[in-house]
Design brief:
Layout (H helix, E strand, L loop, with lengths): L28 E2 L14 E12 L2 E10 L4 E8 L6 E6 L15 E9 L2 E9 L3 E8 L6 E2 L8 E6 L8 E7 L10 E6 L6 E7 L10 E4 L4 E3 L2 E12 L2 E11 L7 E4 L10 H4 L7 E8 L5 E8 L3 E8 H10 L5 H4 L5
Antiparallel strand pairs: 1-21, 2-3, 3-4, 4-5, 6-7, 7-8, 8-9, 10-11, 11-12, 12-13, 14-16, 15-16, 16-17, 17-18, 19-20, 20-21
Length: about 350
């Protein structure tokens, strides 16, 4: 056990691969058998990417962004014994309203999956008269009941914290507009009941480094550690050939997560492999989930690649937290409480 502790359950059967001998100084390394979900994974779905998983009943469950062959994205459910080889249901998740009646979003994409107080929450981007956030809950991965939409348009990249903070649920989001906009900061909001959201606070904006100079957005659910909330997020840069999505890292204050304690000036992962550089949308690494083990400090990061594949990367909490702290550069806005 190292100097940083993950405050969560042990997951001894989590997917893992040791760091290869030929690895550079960055704290993340890719799974040698990437991608773990390829093209045309199930009937009627051409691509699955930007998806989230969670440890459940000594195995793993996941919610997957499935681009249907007609181009409309929806969310699918899957399960795995090892977190690597997935059986994905060919039928999209049959969301219902509070009365148990079918209530399917017109489209749904980039889901996150977070457990809070023994309830599994699915959060995604959808149409609410414009791009906005949809939410549902489940206790058995059989019935998924829609909740109230937390915000009006336009918003996306919603990420729920895995426990209440000061008695309230906490949700990261990235307000924007209806398109793929060249702007966007991360905010955090609070709710006592998962229905009414307020106390909105600014967390952090785009960075000065090239890889996050256009916009940023939440990624995997924050990991509670002895140093604060470890957040993997995405940063976007612009090139003559379009946007490039990289993975960054920050550590937020444990009690007031609108305050950034450390923020890495360097990317942790950027498109370099063929499955990240070539696909439906080239040059994308987009983090959506982690599996982590409190006993060993191991972390597996699930990320979407090129809007085409699901991939895995690995690190340890000691390595990645040390790297973030050693390479931290904060702005005045990062250190603020985030209200004006």
């Amino acid at each position: 056990m190292g100097f940083v502790k993950i405050i969560d359950q042990a997951v001894p059967n989590m997917p893992w691969q040791e760091r290869p001998e030929r690895a550079f100084e960055l704290p993340l390394w890719r799974y040698s058998e990437n991608p773990i979900v390829n093209r045309n994974p199930v009937i009627g779905v051409s691509r699955i990417f930007n998806s989230a998983v969670i440890a459940h009943n000594n195995a793993f469950s996941g919610v997957f962004r499935g681009e249907q062959t007609d181009g409309v994205p929806h969310i699918y459910w899957g399960e795995s014994a090892d977190g690597i080889h997935w059986e994905i249901d060919s039928k999209r998740i049959p969301f219902v309203n509070k009365q148990g009646e079918p209530f399917i979003p017109r489209y749904a994409y980039d889901p996150r999956l977070v457990k809070v107080d023994d309830v599994f929450y699915v959060i995604w981007c959808q149409d609410f008269y414009g791009a906005s956030i949809g939410m549902a809950k489940s206790t058995d991965f059989k019935t998924f009941t829609r909740l109230e939409n937390p915000f009006i348009p336009y918003n996306r990249n919603a990420v729920l914290f895995p426990r209440r903070i000061n008695g309230n649920y906490m949700l990261l989001s990235r307000p924007s507009d209806s398109g793929h906009t060249p702007f966007g900061d991360i905010f955090v909001s609070e709710s006592a009941d998962m229905e009414f959201w307020g106390r909105h606070r600014h967390v952090m904006g785009k960075g000065t480094a090239w890889w996050e100079s256009v916009k940023i957005g939440g990624g995997a659910a924050p990991i509670e550690t002895s140093e604060g909330w470890l957040l993997f997020y995405h940063g976007v840069s612009n090139t003559c050939n379009g946007f490039v999505y990289s993975i960054g890292g920050a550590i937020l204050d444990i009690d007031q997560p609108s305050i950034v304690k450390y923020r890495c000036k360097n990317f942790l992962l950027t498109p370099e492999e063929w499955y990240e550089e070539r696909g439906f949308v080239p040059n994308v690494t987009f983090p959506c989930a982690t599996i982590h083990d409190s006993d060993t400090g191991r972390i597996a990061i699930y990320y979407g690649a090129a809007d085409t594949y699901v991939c895995l990367a690995f690190t340890t909490v000691d390595e990645v937290v040390s790297y973030i702290m050693q390479n931290s550069v904060l702005s005045a806005e990062d250190s603020e409480i985030g209200i004006r």
